[in-house]
Amino acid sequence: MKIAVAGKGGSGKTTIAGTLARLMAQQNGNEVLAIDGDSNPNLALTLGLSREQTAQVTSMPRSVLQRVTDIEGKTKVVLAKSPDEIIREFGVKTSDGVTLLVMPGVDHAGAG
Amino acid sequence: MCGAHAAVRTLVGEMVAEYDRPTVVDMEAGLEHLSRGTTRHVDRLLAVFEPYFKSLETGARVCELAKELGIKQIFGVANKVRHANDERAIREFCARRSVELAGFIPYDDALLEAERAGVAPLDYDRHGLAVQAIAELAKKLLHANGAP
Predict the structure, then answer these.
(1) Beta carbon pairs, A and B, within 8 Å
(2) Looking at chain B, which terminus has fewer C-beta neighbours within 10 angstroms, N or C?
(3) Is residue A57 part of a domain?
(4) A21-62 pLDDT, tens per residue?
(5) Is B117 part of the contact surface with chain A (CB cutoff 8 Å)?
(6) Is pTM beyond 0.80 here?
(7) A8 inside domain
(8) What is the ipTM of this complex?
(9) Residue A59 lies in a domain
(10) Are residues A37 and B148, on separate chains, in Cβ contact within 8 Å?
């Protein structure tokens, strides 16, 4: 099950996404991956990390993406490592079996 | 769309596609960030909105966009609901706009108190009203028809 949680800033989407991830992990004894696509430190807090732990969470580097060119000369962007490797290297495990992965932030001022 | 944004979206999409366990994505805020790249491999989308008209309108737009993007199950979730009147108005709005409602999360001071205390809502009071409503939502999603 792959769930996207969307909404305006301030709507409470992060609180709902994080709490939902934890409850899904607890209810099913599953490992659940929580992806922070919004560079929002609130997701880490909602997942039960302390403020100190949250401050230490780092986002994934852009280098996990790789540009490749196929036989026909088309370029596309793919993962440079397997998802398991990426999660092992950059994921932050929480006490409920949820692993947090923070997407690289976009520098709005410099991004073209 | 700028290159950096596009790359991040590709990254979200690829992770969702290739990782084989349940995944919850806290999407970037705002309509303009809903894109095929991110949502291609998502099977459920929750559009969270608050009980006032502009927010409902945005929620309905998110649901329409998600449908265009081909997401199979799309649900609205009403958050910070204070009154039965709100609930009625939300139900009417969603029926009119063909938004399937998956849950009502009540307004809950405990969430603010949790934030002040620097604690997650679930750790602050797991029997709080809002947390209980999110638990109901989780059950509903886990048992929704067509669960892969």
Answers:
(1) 222
(2) C
(3) yes
(4) 999 999 877 799 999 988 777 899 999 999 899 988 988 888
(5) no
(6) yes
(7) no
(8) 0.92
(9) yes
(10) no
